Amino acid sequence: LVMTATPIPRTLVLTAFGDMDVSKLTEKPAGRQPIRTVTLPLERLDELVGRMRDSVADGQKIYWICPLVE
Hints:
By secondary structure, the protein is an all-alpha fold. The protein contains two helices and no strands.
């Protein structure tokens, strides 16, 4: 059985090869801090990369999500 942390491949594996139980999360995890979500135009990419570099150097976590639009 293949184990992966990414949701889509894991879901496909479970659908094809195993019974899938449904879990419903009804509340946020204890101690969860607010998440800041930001969108920026491509013209500000250099600024974004610089700020990300500074944040990582300060020990912060960053998730950069790039949607594919076809």
